[in-house]
Specification:
It is found in: Membrane, Clathrin-coated pit. It comes from Trypanosoma congolense (strain IL3000). Residues 323-332, 426-445 have a biased composition (Polar residues). Residues 24-164 form the ENTH domain. It holds the Pfam family ANTH. The chain is mainly α. The chain folds into three domains: 1-163, Serine Threonine Protein Phosphatase 5, Tetratricopeptide repeat (Alpha Horseshoe), CATH 1.25.40; 176-308, Methane Monooxygenase Hydroxylase, Chain G, domain 1 (Up-down Bundle), CATH 1.20.58; 358-400 and 408-445, no CATH class. It has helices at 3-28, 31-39, 49-59, 73-85, 90-106, 109-117, 134-160, 169-176, 180-198, 210-238, 246-274, 292-307, 339-349, 363-367, 374-382, 410-415; strands at residues 67-68, 71-72, 395-398, 422-425. It has a two-stranded antiparallel sheet with strand order 1-2. Strand 1 (67-68) and strand 2 form a beta hairpin. Helix 4 (73-85) packs antiparallel against helix 5. The protein is elongated, with a radius of gyration of 48 Å.
């Protein structure tokens, strides 16, 4: 007996075993086993929705028994379905994959956890050779591509969390709570899942039965949802792209490069399905091509941003400029400095030779003191501020007979008893009178 005949015999034995289990389930009333074998039967048609709903309901706890054959319901369902993958019949394998796909989408969180814990379920190495038959050889390529997508979907679900399935409203709320930095990782996870989906090839020879059409219908549904989610978040990023830092812009340009490439492949896949002779109950939409000018404008923005230096705030300390506190000078803001302190500060500022009168610079040289007023001027410099009588204000007028605006008149100057070159007259300037001088209000003069 050659290998082909042996495989045919095994497929026949599997069919007889399936019929025996289905007959026994009617007697024992084991509805769960009956539903599992019905959705993965040898008949070349899509899994019957009636039995699919029973399997899904059992994962949510709607079952007569909480355990089955000594195991919890969800681990038992996953184990029985995994056994159905290890067969030479491509129909059973494909229908089992469709059932797993439904569990990932509509099953409970518990059954999703069980599937993710067993990472070898969708490993292509565990699939037996189905290429002996002509139909098996044709469907074998699609089955391996489908297995790879289910593995990527399981991996993406593991990274995102069981409670964040792309079909749930919680996942949509979760996405809207992310900013540009935290969204990047989730964006990559979704792109990886979509990239695995678009690698599946569609041909008329593969989709020549209702079982394959059901599988492609579920793939179309996943593709539409993934593309909608990714496109929505892409618009969110594009609206804020100009305000990003240079590092953020570079990262998102790479994300958009992958998004545009994957989106074009999805558009080609959907176009092939839509233009085929097969009629799907929920056909894929017509996707518009993403313009390459979008990526060009983003890259141009990155180049312009790299030419502009980022604005940074520098402090004096960061520039090496520090304050010298070795000789701090205290300033008394309550009263202005008198003449002696001013003179001493000038000498400190200009420490010329004090022994030489020619080189000595005093306050007189700086401020141009009039000659012949040594005593009075020094007395004025050493005196304390003179307090004016209540209601009077002082000012100084030049000791000259010339009348100047704002100074005392000629009569006031002749009556003033002042040995220096200035006489005090009251005005609104608030000046003070040197000691040893007399003053009179303007109205008294």
């Amino acid at each position: 007996m050659n290998t082909k005949d042996a495989n045919e015999l095994k497929r026949g034995a599997g069919y007889l075993k399936e019929k025996a289990i289905l007959g026994l389930s009617k007697v024992t009333g084991n509805e769960l086993d009956r539903a599992i074998f019905k959705v993965t039967s040898h008949k070349l048609k899509a899994p019957k929705e009636k039995y699919m709903q029973r399997v899904l309901a059992a994962t949510h706890g709607h079952c007569n028994n909480k355990s089955h054959k000594g195991r919890d319901v969800c681990p038992y369902i996953v184990a029985e379905l995994e056994k159905r993958l290890h067969t030479h019949n491509w129909i059973v394998i494909l229908k089992t994959m469709v059932t797993f796909h439904r569990l990932l989408r509509d099953g409970s969180a518990e059954v999703n956890n069980v599937i993710q814990e067993n990472r070898n379920i969708f490993c292509t190495r565990n699939i037996k050779d189905i290429s002996e038959s002509t139909e098996g050889a044709i469907q074998g390529v699609f089955i391996r591509q489908y297995l790879y997508y289910l593995e990527e979907r399981t991996s993406a679900q593991r990274k995102l969390g069981v409670s964040r399935r792309i079909e749930s409203n919680d996942f949509s709320l979760f996405l809207r709570s992310l900013d540009a930095d935290t969204l990047g990782a989730v964006f990559d996870i979704l792109l990886e899942q979509l990239a695995a989906l678009v690698e599946i090839g569609y041909t008329e020879t593969i989709v020549d039965n209702f079982c394959s059409m059901e599988a492609f219908q579920m793939l179309v549904n996943d593709g539409k949802l993934l593309y909608q989610i990714i496109s929505d978040r892409s618009i969110f990023i594009l609206d804020r792209f100009t305000g990003f830092t240079l590092t953020q812009k570079k990262e998102w340009v790479e994300h958009f490069r992958r998004y545009i490439t994957t989106g074009e492949k999805l558009r080609t896949l959907f176009s092939s399905i839509r233009n085929s002779k097969r009629i799907f109950h929920d056909p894929p939409p017509e996707l518009k091509p993403i313009p390459m000018s979008l990526l060009d404008s983003l890259e141009r923005d990155v180049r312009l941003s790299s030419l502009q230096p980022e604005h940074t705030t520098e402090s004096l300390e960061s520039l090496g400029i520090t304050r010298d506190n070795s000789n701090p000078q205290e300033i008394n803001a309550s009263a202005p400095p008198d003449g002696s302190s001013l003179y001493s500060s000038v000498e400190q500022e200009y420490p010329w030779d004090k022994q030489s009168d020619k080189s000595k610079v005093a306050i007189d040289d700086l401020f141009g003191r009039p000659s012949g007023t040594d005593n009075n001027y020094q007395a004025f410099a050493d005196s304390k501020p003179l307090q004016a009588p209540m209601g009077q204000e002082f000012s100084f007028a030049p000791a000259s007979n010339a009348s100047l605006p704002g100074f005392a008149n000629e009569g006031a100057l002749s009556n003033a008893n002042f040995s220096g070159g200035w006489v005090p007259t009251p005005n609104a300037s608030g000046m003070q009178q040197p000691p040893g001088t007399q003053f009179a209000p303007n109205n008294a003069m």
